[in-house]
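Hi C.,

You asked whether I'd gotten around to modeling the 370-residue construct. I have! Everything is below, sequence then structure, no commentary in between.
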Amino acid sequence: MKIAVLTTKDQWFENYAINFSKELQCTLYFNHKDMKNHDIVFILSYHQIIPKEILSKNRHNIVIHASPLPKGKGWAPLFWQILEGKHEIIFSMFEAGIGIDDGSIYMQKTLELTGYELHDEIREKQAKLTIKMCQEFINNYKKYKTPIPQTGAESFYPKRTPKDSKLDINKTIKEQFNLLRIVDNENYPAYFEIDGYRYILKIELDKMGGVKLIDFVDLSFEEKKQVLSFRNHDEVKQWMYNSDKIELDEHLKFIKSLELNIQKQYLLVKKKNRFLGVIDFTKINYKKKECEFGLYANPFEKIAGVGRILEEICIKYTFNILKLKKLKLEVFEDNIQVRNLHKKYQFKETDQTIVNNKKVICMELINENR
């Protein structure tokens, strides 16, 4: 089948659409006017009206809407339902038409929420279910290819505006927690007004115990040089596969290469005004739900328990942020201190190899809850 994905550029779903189209090895469009004829076009988080003559060129024009259609048509149905206190949200896959969310339905699936997710995690869960429904449609085409007309009373949600992020100063945080959960900290942050003054509030879950992680691509020039000084220190480079001194130009080119590399992430770890060290994640594979990681402490400052702190951050970041299941590593056999640290956190030895004429131990940790 000839498949395509259509989404809006520079919106929240764009990166998910890019990865999904790569997985399907299909064309990704950002404007319906560019589309050719297709068997299936998945129209996901697209914000323009598509004329009937363009829709008619495709066998299926599929939209996924976060409501049990015909109820909840219109704008931002997922967020409106969270404000209503719902924890189970029905998603409807339907055939796009010229009316407002009025097409016949292919399937419906339920998104289960804990009631504690914030905006970005809600979006991630929304994207994952959306893509899962698309995959199921493709894999079970004979079952779903014939949609069923909508039945029952319809209802509509209005478009959300920045004013919808306003907090009531006379209500408690708990009473308004669902509103805080859905606000976009960058584009539509929560705010309140007192005596003519407006104050903005931003909300985030502290998963790292007050530790700040700074992506290498976001480092200042001075921070980049500081990281390089860590990496070139004898205490650090002796345990690296490449133990040569790295020059500044090479270091900056490497950081630049990370901007478009979805399989690698390097982070500087900071707590208050102290740089604890560096953690890195490589060979990130979201399909297999696994990656490899490494870490090294700031060699210029002796911080009690820093190895344990960095190790715990790596584990939390892998399982809670990247949402992966398996964390893998390689360590030189004679690096006894680090090997014992990994064993303390239940890493199991799985294999051995030789690098630079030295024996390397392969280890992994599996999160059985995923």
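If it helps when you're writing up: Residues 119-139 form the longest helix (21 residues).

Thanks,
B.
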